[in-house]
């Protein structure tokens, strides 16, 4: 099936697309074309190596006509027609593939194709055989007819130039691609590709501007009067002249002005010359050393045409010097004067008003006598200001020179004008006064001043009056003087604890409290001021206390109206945030009662708290663990919840066990003291009384409420083991078994100190907990409740307890909503409802990177989050080395990936177009998973794939090298199918290993962990989700992350299975990344997102927010 060169040209999106495509084809940038065809249809596909990457092209021909073309480059989505990559493939098909197809088709209808063949041969000869030396050049002539009127003429040729007698016909030939004979030595097809590179922009400019000019002539009805002589040149209006200058800047262009023709350099810059002032008495002359010049003024730029240069002036020179040159040019051309003549008064005024501006660019030469004689008189300024009945500022102004007084905004009579002309005025100071009045938006009417806009009045009262006083006298009436600027609306705040509530009292108030809500709203709207009902201005922009009050109200979830009575009651836990905010306030005095101070002191100085570690604890706590224990005790003492967010492996479980044990021991001691007191008071020694006391002791013990631990199923046995190991005196009840068995166990809860259940069982048994009151409710691995809408999270938040704690090494994994959900468990409403939290915190931080809101959230959560990192507290822990290892795909793997990336890009764009960003994330994740699987091993996605994977081969090298060096390895992947592939490969290599996935039962998990730590088995394959938490695998010292994902914290958790307390060896962590793939982009996003969380917590993990359409498209673009 054939296509003609004419058709290939016609489908191109532009001349440039065809020309670039031809160059690509000539340079061999088109790979082999793959064809699929039948009788009437042919499909061709290829890869074109572009300037910035490789592009996949596809074309469909139906009945010998182009039916469809596509390419994954950006222009193909933005422009109609074929891009340069498709053009290159079509030309390769035409010149290299189609001749073979023609020979292979029996019964070719040569007679029908003969004419097309010869026509195409002509085009082919012109396009492909025209040598570099035979390229067509252009010669431009600029015709200057004066008064800023310019025309363009054109000559073309190779060895000899021919004048183009009709530019508009020439442009039409260019548009049609016509062959035109100019003379014996020149005929060519009019196509941009035949011109040399330097000429192409000029030719395109002429084609475009001729069409624009013809359109204008048709619109105004002047096309019929367009003569043959007119068609020889192209008029250049201001805009076209500026564009032409940009095209030829730096080149010499022939300029004709009627008198002569000369070569002129087009350049940017200012001419170098000087002005000279000469004279004495009442006659002075201003001249210039610039001999021949022509000033040219267009709306955008100003130019000076010299004998051999056309200079585009810079803006400042054009404003300050050009007008003077223009007036001198007109004086010379109209009146024949080579200089400007001035009287003594006028030369003084000229020098005083203009000399400073001119001398910034051009030297002005004059003798010292002239400089000495020209000294301005000083202007005395008087401004009179008043307030009218509507609250507007009105006034009058006077300028005084010795005995002459005038209002600059009133029209002077003839006598006054003559008198003023004899004065060497203080122009700079007059301008300063006028500029001040103009800046503050004063209007003038009949010489009077008027200022009516409230915002302008505020600004003028705040700073404008002082500015006028620096230049002269300002007289203000009593009415205006009463407009005060209130700097601080509140002098002090009182804080006290009363009835277990926090009381906040506003003192020394300088405004009506009922206006507080409106004032704070004005602050949030970023207004500079608020006008009080008495007419005074509250200075929001210049005052600090308004900002402090706004931070308090916003941070505490209050409304401005809550302070209308001068006092507000808040939950006690708000004291910690409020103290932080007020300590940073410079404008508000704060008084605190002793109970308030006690809370702040205890929370801030937990290291010095008097809480002793229980003696029966079977462990020696490290210093940081003692601090964590005391922090837990302090929080519990005040009824606050908290998040123990220590790095993985720092012993969060042990610190919590110490808390529960200490409470039990103190309760038992209290019970014994109470019992002894009862015995002493009653003085009863008989056995019956003793027995009664024993019963009383038992009943007192029963009054001690149990604590509930909720954890992942895989950690239930861990908790039971740790409690038995470190606190054997605690009575522990584990909830497990069938529904009936669990119900029976729960009925026996009385007398137990600790109850352990899993998130999975809790959501099933939650009704059974309805009547049970716990002392502590402890959520371990609290990231399990990061989604507030899950059944686990809802069930957990229904539990009744006096104090709630959360344990997690990753309080934020992906979004701030997770942090809110955990706080909603430990202290409901502390971070408000989610809708309010999202509006006031999550959206400003994630979408706008609002630093003020970020700082506010950090202050809110800081007292209730205890977080320490290994690098800060475990100085004795061996080093951890993290290395990113890049691998390249195998050849067949790379081809599959490239093809599926292009397909995924197309599918994603269609999805975005059809559904928008919000409804496209499921599709996006599915496509990303497909690409990630291809990076890991294509057989995960394509069952018939039989080749290997670049990453697998590199991974096996690391594994074998590590084993030979005596190391033990944890190998993590998110895909269990990839673990199966790795397992099969390890078996084939004779390498023993264990494997743990989500289907591994809890008992089997413990067995595998213990056996790995104590045996010589060198490799443990682990599913990231199933084995990322709750495992102690310090027997390993090499960690391999086979595949990356957004959640870097999950990888860190997995790494800390090996890098934790008990590790004696240095740990080497490898993160495997496939080069030029989606994995590299995931790594970039990890690095980018981590900064947001670090701004909320001291140390945190990356979280991914909802992506914009641009981010999604970038994700699927070729690396």
TrEMBL record:
SUPFAM superfamilies for the chain: P-loop containing nucleoside triphosphate hydrolases
Helicase C-terminal domain boundaries: 951-1103
GO MF entries: ATP binding; hydrolase activity; zinc ion binding
PROSITE patterns registered for this protein in UniProt: HELICASE_ATP_BIND_1 (PS51192), HELICASE_CTER (PS51194), ZF_SWIM (PS50966)
Domain SWIM-type positions: 55-94
Domain Helicase ATP-binding: 633-829
CDD domains: DEXQc_arch_SWI2_SNF2, SF2_C_SNF
Keywords, alphabetical: Hydrolase, Metal-binding, Zinc, Zinc-finger
Protein name: SNF2-related protein
Species whose genome carries this gene: Cellulosilyticum lentocellum (strain ATCC 49066 / DSM 5427 / NCIMB 11756 / RHM5)
């Amino acid at each position: 099936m054939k296509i003609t060169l004419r058709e290939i040209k016609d489908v191109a999106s532009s001349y440039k697309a065809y020309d670039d495509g031809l160059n690509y084809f000539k340079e061999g940038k088109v790979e082999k074309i793959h064809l699929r065809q039948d009788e009437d249809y042919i499909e061709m596909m290829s890869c074109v190596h572009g300037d910035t990457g490789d592009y996949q092209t596809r074309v469909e021909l139906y009945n010998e006509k182009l039916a469809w073309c596509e390419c994954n480059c950006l222009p193909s989505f933005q422009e109609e027609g074929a891009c340069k990559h498709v053009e290159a493939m079509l030309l390769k098909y035409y010149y290299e593939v189609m001749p073979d197809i023609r020979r292979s088709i029996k019964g070719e209808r040569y007679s029908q194709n003969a004419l097309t063949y010869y026509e195409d041969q002509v085009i082919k000869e012109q396009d492909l055989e025209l040598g570099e030396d035979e390229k067509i050049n252009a010669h431009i002539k600029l015709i200057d007819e004066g008064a800023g009127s310019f025309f363009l003429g054109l000559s073309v040729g190779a060895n000899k130039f021919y004048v183009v007698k009709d530019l508009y016909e020439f442009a039409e030939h260019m548009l049609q691609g016509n062959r035109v004979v100019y003379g014996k030595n020149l005929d060519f097809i009019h196509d941009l590709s035949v011109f040399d590179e330097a000429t192409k922009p000029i030719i395109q400019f002429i084609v475009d501007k001729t069409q624009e000019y013809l359109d204008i002539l048709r619109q105004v009805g002047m096309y019929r009067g367009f003569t043959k002589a007119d068609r020889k040149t192209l008029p250049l209006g201001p805009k076209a002249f500026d564009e032409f200058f940009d095209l030829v800047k730096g080149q010499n262009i022939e300029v004709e002005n009627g008198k002569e023709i000369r070569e002129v350099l087009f350049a940017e810059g200012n001419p170098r010359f000087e002005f000279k002032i000469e004279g004495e008495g009442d006659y002075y002359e201003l001249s210039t050393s610039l001999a021949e010049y022509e000033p040219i003024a267009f709306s955008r730029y100003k130019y000076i045409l010299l004998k051999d240069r056309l200079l585009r002036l810079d803006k400042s020179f054009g404003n300050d010097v050009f007008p003077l040159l223009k007036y001198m040019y007109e004086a010379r051309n109209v009146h024949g004067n080579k200089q400007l003549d001035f009287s003594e008064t006028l030369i003084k005024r000229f020098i005083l008003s203009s000399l400073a501006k001119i001398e910034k660019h051009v030297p002005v030469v004059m003798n010292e006598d002239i400089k000495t004689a020209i000294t301005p008189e000083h202007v005395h300024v008087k401004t009179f200001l008043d307030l009218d009945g509507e609250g507007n500022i009105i006034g009058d102004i006077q300028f005084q020179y010795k005995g002459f007084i005038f209002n600059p905004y009133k029209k002077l009579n003839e006598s006054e004008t003559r008198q003023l002309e004899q004065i060497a005025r203080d122009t700079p100071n007059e301008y300063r006064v006028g500029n001040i009045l103009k800046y503050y938006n004063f209007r003038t009417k009949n010489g009077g001043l008027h200022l009516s806009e409230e915002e302008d009045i505020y600004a003028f009262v705040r700073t404008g009056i002082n500015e006028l006083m620096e230049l002269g006298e300002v007289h203000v009436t009593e009415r205006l003087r009463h407009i005060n600027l209130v700097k601080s609306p509140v002098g002090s705040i009182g804080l006290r604890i009363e009835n277990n509530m926090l009381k906040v009292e506003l003192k020394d108030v300088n405004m009506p409290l009922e206006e507080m809500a409106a004032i704070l709203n004005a602050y949030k709207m970023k207004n500079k001021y608020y006008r009080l009902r008495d007419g005074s201005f509250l200075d929001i922009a210049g005052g600090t206390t308004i900002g402090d009050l706004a931070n308090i109200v916003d941070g505490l979830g209050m409304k401005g109206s809550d302070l209308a009575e001068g006092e507000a009651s808040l939950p006690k836990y708000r004291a910690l945030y409020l103290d932080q905010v007020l300590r940073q306030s410079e404008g508000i005095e704060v008084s605190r009662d002793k109970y308030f101070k006690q809370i702040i002191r205890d929370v801030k100085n937990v290291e010095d708290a008097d809480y002793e570690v229980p003696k029966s604890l079977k462990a020696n706590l490290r210093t940081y663990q003692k601090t964590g224990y005391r922090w837990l005790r302090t929080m519990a003492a005040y009824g606050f919840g908290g998040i123990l967010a220590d790095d993985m492996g720092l012993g969060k479980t042990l610190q919590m066990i110490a808390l529960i044990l200490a409470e039990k021991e103190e309760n038992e001691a209290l019970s014994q003291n109470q019992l002894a007191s009862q015995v002493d008071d009653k003085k009863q020694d008989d056995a019956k009384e003793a027995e009664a006391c024993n019963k009383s002791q038992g009943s007192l013990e029963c009054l001690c409420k149990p604590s509930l631990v909720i954890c992942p199923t895989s950690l239930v046995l861990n908790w039971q083991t740790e409690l038995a190991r470190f606190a054997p005196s605690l009575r522990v009840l584990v909830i497990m078994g069938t529904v009936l068995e669990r119900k029976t166990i729960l009925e026996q809860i009385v007398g137990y100190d600790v109850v352990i259940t899993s998130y999975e069982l809790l959501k099933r048994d939650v009704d059974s907990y309805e009547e049970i009151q716990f002392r502590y409710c402890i959520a371990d691995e609290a990231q399990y409740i990061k989604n507030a809408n899950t059944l686990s999270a809802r069930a957990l938040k229904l539990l009744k307890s006096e104090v709630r704690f959360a344990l997690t090494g990753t309080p934020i994994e992906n979004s701030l909503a997770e942090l809110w959900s955990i706080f909603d468990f430990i202290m409901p409403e502390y971070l408000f409802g989610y809708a309010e939290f999202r509006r006031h915190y999550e959206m400003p931080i994630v979408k706008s990177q609002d630093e003020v809101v970020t700082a506010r959230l950090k202050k809110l959560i800081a007292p209730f989050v205890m977080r320490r990192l290994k690098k800060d507290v475990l100085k004795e822990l061996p080093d951890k080395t993290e290395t990113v290892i890049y691998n390249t795909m195998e050849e067949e793997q790379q081809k599959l990936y490239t093809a599926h990336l292009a397909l995924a890009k197309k599918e994603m764009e269609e999805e975005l177009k059809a559904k928008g960003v919000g409804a496209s994330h499921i599709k996006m994740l599915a496509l990303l998973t497909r690409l990630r699987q291809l990076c890991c091993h294509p057989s995960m996605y394509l069952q018939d794939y039989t080749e290997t994977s670049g990453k697998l081969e590199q991974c096996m090298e690391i594994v074998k090298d590590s084993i030979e060096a005596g190391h033990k390895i944890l190998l993590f992947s998110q895909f269990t199918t990839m673990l199966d592939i790795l397992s099969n490969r390890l078996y084939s290599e004779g390498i023993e290993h264990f494997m743990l996935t989500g289907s591994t039962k809890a008992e089997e998990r413990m067995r595998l962990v213990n056996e790995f730590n104590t045996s010589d088995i060198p490799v443990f394959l682990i599913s990231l989700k199933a084995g990322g938490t709750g495992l102690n695998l310090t027997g390993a010292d090499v960690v391999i992350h086979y595949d990356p994902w957004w959640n870097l914290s999950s990888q860190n958790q997995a790494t800390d299975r090996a890098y934790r307390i008990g590790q004696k060896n240095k740990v080497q962590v490898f993160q495997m990344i496939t080069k030029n793939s989606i994995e590299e982009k995931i790594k970039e996003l990890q690095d980018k997102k981590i900064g947001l969380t670090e701004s909320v917590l001291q140390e945190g993990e990356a979280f991914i927010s909802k992506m914009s359409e641009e981010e999604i498209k970038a994700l699927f673009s070729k690396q």
